Amino acid sequence: MTLLRVEKVSKHFGSLIAVNDVSMTVEPGELRAVIGPNGAGKTTFFNLISGFLTPTFGRVMFDGEDVTQLLPARRVWRGIARTFQITEVFPELTIRENLRIAVEVASGYRLRVWQSQDADGEVKARVVDLLEMSGLTEKADRLVGELAHGDQRATEIMMALALKPRLLLLDEPTAGMGDQETYDITQLIRKLHRDQKLTIVLIEHDMRVVFHLADRIMVLDQGKFLAEGTPQDIAANEAVQAAYLGKAAA
Ligand SMILES: Nc1ncnc2c1ncn2[C@@H]1O[C@H](COP(=O)(O)OP(=O)(O)OP(=O)(O)O)[C@@H](O)[C@H]1O
Ligand SMILES: [Mg+2]
């Protein structure tokens, strides 16, 4: 069954149409990229999927249910988690503490960790799992604010993963990174996709990342759908090339 079905969504900000009649379908296990020039509406499109914005028109179906009007937290419970274009972590806490918070939120504080040693052990074990999965174990007790950007981003991604999502949305996971960090984050995303069978939609500017990772790519330009296809299709698409060169699309 289709996991995510975005149906003809638009978002108007006054007279500006940031997203204009865009549809997208994502199947379980897919790794989809959304690309497009600056201001194309990519982040706004993510906000419509994750619930930070409500569409002016159209609807968002997740796992067969209409989630268009649900608040972000409700969508998290349904299984949609995201990271932000600007990394969102608690810089004054350690990686382990950041992950612990995410694990506790994911349990809905149902585990009552302050009352039961078993529950506390369960949370700790889950944090250890997340650390191992991400290769962050050795840095677990360092303050996140003192770490390199790539490690901060990896922490943020693992916090999203702590929510046990069925769909993970990543908004420019390699933004502002050098080659080595970009490579490391790309490897982490690939690993999560492969080992956790996670469905991922990512916005990405770095074409090397997109072409290495994505099964399919959707291109937005000035709020509108421009093209969709495999990396090879998109690389050969003249309208896409024109949009990236700043010319009118053919
Ligand atoms: N809350 C808002 N209020 C008004 N205009 C907005 C708002 N959010 C986004 N916009 C506008 O909508 C358009 C699309 O912005 P958006 O951030 O979605 O683009 P983007 O494709 O993510 O760009 P970038 O690659 O720079 O991150 C832009 O013109 C932006 O200025
Ligand atoms: Mg953006």
Summarize the structure in words.
The chain has helices at 42-50, 72-78, 95-106, 117-134, 149-162, 179-195, 207-213, 231-235, 238-244; strands at 4-13, 16-26, 31-35, 57-62, 65-66, 80-83, 167-171, 199-203, 216-221, 224-229. The model has no long low-confidence stretch (mean pLDDT 92). Strand 4 and strand 5 (65-66) form a beta hairpin. The protein is built from 9 helices and 10 strands. The chain folds into 2 domains: 1-79 and 168-180 and 190-250, 3-Layer(aba) Sandwich (Rossmann fold), CATH 3.40.50; 89-164, no CATH class. The strands form 2 sheets. It has a 6-stranded mixed beta sheet, sandwiched between helices. It has a 4-stranded antiparallel beta sheet with strand order 2-1-4-5, with helices on one face. The protein is of the alpha/beta class and 250 residues long. Helices cover 38% and strands 24% of the residues. The structure holds adenosine-5'-triphosphate and magnesium ion. Magnesium ion is lined by residues 42-43, 85.
In DSSP terms (H or I, runs of 4 or more residues), the helix count works out at 9
CATH class of the largest domain: Alpha Beta
- The count of DSSP E runs of length 2 or more, i.e. the number of strands, is 10
Helical content, roughly?
A: 25-40%
End-to-end gap = 35 Å
Poorly predicted sequence stretches spanning 5 or more consecutive residues: none
